[in-house]
Amino acid sequence: MFTAKDPRTQELFVDDALTEIELNLISGTYACHTGSGSQLAMRSWFPSFTTFELSGEDYGRWTAHREDSYFRRLDEINNIKHEASSRGPLNAKKWRDLMRGGKELCRLKDTIEMWSKEFLEEHLGL
Question: Does residue 88 contact residue 46 with C-beta atoms inside 8 Å?
Answer without folding.
Answer: no
